[in-house]
């Protein structure tokens, strides 16, 4: 479900100088010793599912045999389970996950390991909206659509956002400085939110991405730079207001980064920030998926543990809601939330000016955008139009991933002109205009939210956002995965 904004007005686009420091997903490399035995039915490239978009349940002979063997093994183990654990096991059977029990010994053996496994599954069921039944149902639906190459935005025609939605800013002009002054007058009510669940292994760095040096002269870590900007803003506000100012800074971590981020902050005295103004919230994980039937995967190094993966940085919304942090900030009189990521040093070059635009225009949501070259691997902001029997429907501004834009433009038969930016290439798809840039601005994922509207939206939606799945297929029929997939969500949704 997408967050719905009850009182959103217009969204401003601010254009700082361009940067190629773009967000990238990071995968964790496993390097562990086996625990609890090696899983005998862990993920492999062998696909046992029927054609996904026709039969999402695992009904092939191999899958049926595994399910039958798993159910028999569970029945032999059932006398040793508590009533709660027996209920969790039954839930897994209902979700088509009997294969998880194939290697289980009978009652009286490996009871602590069985309890550990079922406790993990219970936690996963509790943390996902609707529980594991909903997760499997959503996975089967999204994987079937993926196998059929269904574009979730099919039928929509992208167009350039209308000119009245934009506020173009250039850091060297007086208009930029004017909006910075307006933003500074609002900044005492600003909160910072940073999803930071990734490691730097893709970049050849073994630590958390927040510890990456942002430049080579001093080796200043990214987190230190962010903290320095917040400290400098606090100092300026204290001078103007004549009182101490503490701006909340929330970091969403993952199982990979939580302890390391805690240690990094503590060992550097929170980089000048007060410990009480920094909040760490750890996002939960979701089960990895072996195939289009939504088959869960055992950890290859632990036969009594599910392989799980992060659910994506969109979890930041549900965490802000369920933790009570968003409502607490509102009670404290905070007015604005700035969402940023651990992928660029430019967020703090524009945040005050963007805040000034939000305040002066009364915006509920403000995306900070940048000039973008055509076909650049960066999400865009665009309007979407769709023809209906009773007329056309227009969504004035939405973030769209770069890999979805080109198929939409191709289906629309043109470059998506209109709006305030002119055509997009007259049938050539996403091409550069006379300015040398695409008419579709790049989404930096620097997002300013009005806290009252945001908190109300969180209460209405629970912070749930639209999910997607991105399996890497091992076969032309799009039946088998190269590696386990999972459902994901993005904060810009």
From TrEMBL:
Catalytic function, reaction form: a monosaccharide 1-phosphate + UTP + H(+) = a UDP-monosaccharide + diphosphate
One GO term (biological process): UDP-N-acetylglucosamine biosynthetic process
Pfam families per UniProt: UDPGP (PF01704)
SUPFAM superfamilies tied to this protein: Nucleotide-diphospho-sugar transferases (SSF53448)
Chain intervals with Low complexity compositional bias: 55-66
The protein's required cofactors: Mn(2+); Mg(2+)
Molecular function terms from GO: UDP-N-acetylglucosamine diphosphorylase activity; UTP-monosaccharide-1-phosphate uridylyltransferase activity
EC number: 2.7.7.64
Record keywords: Nucleotidyltransferase, Transferase
Main enzyme class: transferase
Origin superkingdom: Eukaryota
Segments for region (Disordered): 20-66
Family: Belongs to the USP family.
Protein name per Swiss-Prot or TrEMBL: UTP-monosaccharide-1-phosphate uridylyltransferase
Species of origin: Emiliania huxleyi (Coccolithophore)
């Amino acid at each position: 479900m997408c967050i719905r904004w009850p009182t959103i007005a217009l969204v401003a686009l601010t254009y700082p100088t361009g940067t190629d420091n773009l967000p990238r997903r990071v995968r964790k490399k496993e390097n562990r010793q086996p625990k609890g035995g090696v899983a005998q039915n862990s993920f492999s490239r062998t696909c046992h599912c029927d054609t996904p978009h026709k039969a999402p349940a695992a009904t092939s002979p191999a899958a049926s045999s595994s399910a039958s063997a798993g159910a028999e093994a569970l029945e032999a183990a059932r006398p040793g389970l508590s009533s709660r654990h027996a209920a969790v096991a039954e839930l897994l059977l209902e979700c088509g996950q009997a294969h998880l029990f194939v290697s289980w010994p009978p009652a009286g053996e490996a009871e602590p390991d069985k309890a550990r496994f079922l406790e993990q599954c219970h936690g996963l069921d509790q943390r996902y909206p609707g529980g594991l039944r909903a997760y499997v149902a959503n996975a089967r639906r999204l994987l079937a659509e993926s196998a059929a190459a269904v574009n979730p935005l099919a039928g929509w025609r992208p167009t350039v956002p209308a000119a009245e939605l934009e506020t173009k800013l250039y850091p060297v002009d007086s208009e930029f400085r004017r909006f910075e002054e307006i933003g500074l007058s609002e900044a005492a009510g600003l909160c910072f939110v940073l999803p930071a669940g990734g490691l730097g292994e893709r970049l050849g760095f073994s630590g958390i991405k927040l510890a990456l040096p942002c430049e080579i002269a001093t080796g200043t870590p990214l987190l230190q730079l962010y903290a320095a900007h917040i400290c400098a803003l606090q100092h300026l506000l204290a001078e103007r207001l004549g009182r101490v100012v503490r701006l909340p800074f929330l970091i969403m971590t993952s199982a990979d980064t939580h302890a390391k981020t805690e240690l990094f902050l503590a060992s550097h005295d929170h980089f000048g920030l007060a410990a009480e103004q920094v909040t760490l919230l750890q996002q939960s994980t979701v089960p990895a998926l072996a195939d289009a039937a939504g088959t869960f995967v055992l950890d290859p190094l632990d036969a009594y543990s599910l392989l799980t993966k992060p659910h994506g940085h969109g979890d930041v919304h549900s965490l802000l809601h369920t933790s009570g942090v968003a409502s607490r900030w509102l009670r404290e009189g905070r007015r604005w939330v700035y969402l940023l990521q651990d992928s660029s040093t430019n967020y703090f070059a524009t945040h005050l000016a963007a805040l000034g635009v939000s305040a002066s225009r009364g915006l509920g949501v403000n995306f900070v955008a940048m000039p973008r070259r055509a076909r650049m691997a960066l999400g865009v902001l665009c309007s979407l139009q769709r023809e209906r029997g009773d007329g056309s429907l227009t969504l004035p501004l939405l973030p769209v991933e770069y890999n979805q834009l080109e198929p939409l433009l191709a289906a629309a038969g043109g470059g998506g002109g209109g709006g305030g930016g002119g055509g997009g290439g007259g049938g050539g798809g996403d091409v550069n205009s006379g300015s040398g840039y695409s008419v579709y601005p790049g989404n930096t994922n620097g997002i300013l939210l009005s806290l009252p509207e945001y908190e109300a939206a969180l209460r209405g939606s629970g912070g749930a956002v639209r999910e997607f799945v991105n399996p890497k297929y091992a076969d032309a029929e799009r039946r088998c995965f190269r590696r386990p997939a999972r459902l994901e969500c993005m904060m810009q949704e």
